[in-house]
Amino acid sequence: MRKMQPNGYKDRGKEDEGPLLEETHVKVLEVLERRPSGHEVHAISEPGIYVVRARLIDASSCESGDRVEVEGDKIGPLSLLRYRDLSNESTNSLVDAIKEVINENPDGHLSFYNRANNISLKMHAFQLLPGIGKSTAQDWVQKRGPNGWIDLAEVSEKLGIDAVSLLAERYEKELIDPSEVPSLLELLVRTSA
Q1: Closest Cα to residue 29, out of 104, 129, 77, 100?
Q2: Which of 62, 68, 55, 60 has its CA nearest to residue 9?
Q3: Torsions phi, psi for 23 (to 5 deg)
Q4: Residues linked to residue 79 through DSSP beta bridges, in sequence order
Q5: How many CA within 13 A on the CB side of residue 187?
Q6: How many Cα atoms are found within 13 Å in the side-chain-facing hemisphere of 82?
Q7: Which of 62, 103, 105, 107 suits a disulfide with 66, CB 3.0-4.6 Å?
Q8: How far apart are CA 19 and CA 50, in angstroms?
């Protein structure tokens, strides 16, 4: 028999969880009223950065911008949500929510800047970031040097960019179009989650 969770839902087996098994928190993008009754949240999960939805147990228990524990008593089980099913309010707050998730767990994201190499003879991994061309990528490799950077703030300072924003924009692009290859979400976030 499956055990009951604090929120009243039966604990599902690992095979039922899919990619959301390791998710510990959600960053709420929006609270929506559902008819005939109830509310649900649209959110970004942590640490895997999936677009998700969950039934809200108590409508007054959370609001947009809140960080909520998945195993707590505020929301029901998570389910995947397609980007195109998000409301305008949710899509407008998505990049900011992703930036907060990156800042909560910066190590895997920093590894991108420290380990990025050539993908092919014509393309460097840095070129996956919005607005970064071949010459900028080569310049970044020189600035990185053999030791890499200590944290994302140092990356931003040394390169004159907002390192977290660039990654968040790339992640958003991958959420909009899951066929983006290579997927930094899969390579950096979800394999280490």
Answers
A1: 100
A2: 55
A3: -75, 130
A4: 53
A5: 19
A6: 5
A7: 62
A8: 9
User: Hey, CA dihedral for 62, 16, 173, 158, is it positive or negative?
Assistant: positive
170-182 confidence digits (pLDDT tens): 999 999 999 999 9
Which candidate, 76, 79, 57, places its Cα nearest to that of 4? Answer: 76
How confident is the prediction for the chain on average, in pLDDT? 89
Structure tokens at 93: 């707050």
Q: Where in the chain are the domains?
A: 14-86, 106-190
Tokens representing 47? 């640490």
Angle formed by the axes of helices 134-144 and 152-159, to 10°?
A: 120
CATH superfamily, region 106-190: AF1531-like domain (1.10.150.280)
Q: pLDDT digit string (tens) for 66-118?
A: 999 999 999 999 999 999 999 999 999 999 999 999 999 899 899 999 999 99
